[in-house]
Amino acid sequence: FSGMIGASTAVIAEKEKGTLARFLSAPVSPWEVLLGKTVAVVVSLIVSAMACIVYGVVVFNADITFNPLNPAHMLSALILLLGGVMMIGCGLIISIVAKTVRGASGIATVITWPLMFLTGLVIPEYLLPESLRFLARVFPLTKAIDAVRNAVVFGAGVGETLQCLPPVLAGAAITYLIGVLCYSRLLRRAV
Asked: In 3D, which of 165, 158, 117, 176 has the Cα closest to residue 140?
């Protein structure tokens, strides 16, 4: 969910500081700027995820096993990355609506809190009301979180983890593509 907040504020911050116009006049294409922003947010997400894992293992003695030679674990890392890209796409969509960094951060926070519950990150799906369980089941990020949890914590195999890849990949591609279109529109408005 940090990807949504990071991406929503990244472009707006450049616009507020007046550096977006400089980027556009530089010999760098706007798509290279977007790629750089995306990579920066992804690296931030990886560092954040690693810190959370270390904290969980050290402080709470969590039984988290990651073996880079286990294909299910590597697949879960890819699924987690795609979930991050999906949230970055959502952040780019927010950036078209928000006028300030503070506004973008506020909108992203208002969206991420319910999503944390809906995806099963905070409470299990079976505790949700039936109407919300349906949304949780069809939301690709729920499948991403479940795939990672099942592979790394509960030892699920490649087959079970692989079933989650198509909806997560589709969700990430669609959301990021819509985010790119919003970014393009934001650039046209900035010129």
From this structure: 165
